[in-house]
Amino acid sequence: MTTTVRALLFDVFGTVVDWRGSLVEGLQGLSAKHGVRGDWERLADAWRAEAYEAILPQIAARSLPWLPLDEVHRLALDELLPRHGLVGLTTAEVAWINRLWHQLTPWPDAVPGLTRLRQGYPVCALSNGNVSLLLDMARHAGLPWDMLFGADLFQRYKPAAEVYLGACALLDLQPEQVMLCAAHNGDLQAAKELGLATSFIQRPREKGPAGGEVSSGGWDLEASDLQDLADQLGLPVLAGDQPDPDD
């Protein structure tokens, strides 16, 4: 199937960027700058869970109106701060915390891997993030996307079929001509059921001590990182990525 693939779509949070480690590091900066103390690892885990397990399902069920992910994150944050004993923060401080999602750090292989993959394919973000969030993140992290497919383009969140098929339609490609690359089995399963090719990207440090997802199998490709994916797709190594013979 991979011989028919003409474009690559990438999940972003967890697959391309280290959302958890970046949030924890950013929140530790809040401690250093403003003297605010908190269990930042616990807050980061709860923030992601509150947004994805509590709020997004309500939007999918239409019991909440459509909201872009920035607003979902803010709703979750407003609920979580008092639960974690973080009261008395200024409006500016809370807004600053919410903007941390715009400044996530890529995994070490992400930028060189995407750059290498672009030799053979358009590489596109397919994320539940809104386009403005993804754009800020790309500029902050140097992610060389050809296209940003944010959930706000479709007014739906993954794993809704409209997201995957909408991206294929905008690329003017059939689903089998598009490969989703992700570190999450559920994301890949939704894409596979719609006819997209799939690649599982291992991210064993995505959730810190809790690890990352283990492949459930059945994907077209499985890769240890984006450089390994480029190897499997037969793309040449870029000059700057060549090992130093003197090392």
Structure report:
- It contains nine helices and eight strands.
- 43% of the residues lie in helices and 12% in strands.
- The protein is an alpha/beta fold and 247 residues long.
- The chain has a six-stranded parallel β-sheet with strand order 5-4-1-6-7-8, with helices on both faces. The protein has a two-stranded antiparallel ribbon with strand order 2-3.
- The chain has two domains: 2-16 and 107-236, HAD superfamily/HAD-like (Rossmann fold, 3-Layer(aba) Sandwich); 19-103, Orthogonal Bundle (DNA polymerase, domain 1).
- The mean pLDDT is 94.
- The protein is globular.
- Helix 1 crosses helix 2 (40-60) and helix 2 packs across helix 3.
Which terms would index this structure?
alpha/beta, Rossmann fold, DNA polymerase, domain 1, six-stranded parallel beta sheet, two-stranded antiparallel sheet, 9 helices
What does the largest sheet look like?
Answer: 6 strands, parallel
Main CATH class of the largest domain: Alpha Beta
Oligomer state of the chains in this structure: single chain
Mean pLDDT level: 94
Kindly summarize this structure in a few lines.
Helix content is 43%, strand content 12%. It has helices at 19-34, 40-60, 69-83, 91-98, 110-117, 131-141, 161-170, 185-193, 226-232; strands at 7-10, 17-18, 105-106, 123-127, 147-150, 178-182, 197-201, 221-223. It is globular and about 55 Å long.
Write the layout of secondary structure elements.
Elements: E1 7-10, E2 17-18, H1 19-34, H2 40-60, H3 69-83, H4 91-98, E3 105-106, H5 110-117, E4 123-127, H6 131-141, E5 147-150, H7 161-170, E6 178-182, H8 185-193, E7 197-201, E8 221-223, H9 226-232
Parallel strand pairs: 1-4, 1-6, 4-5, 6-7, 7-8
Antiparallel strand pairs: 2-3
Helix pairs in contact: 1-2, 2-3, 5-9
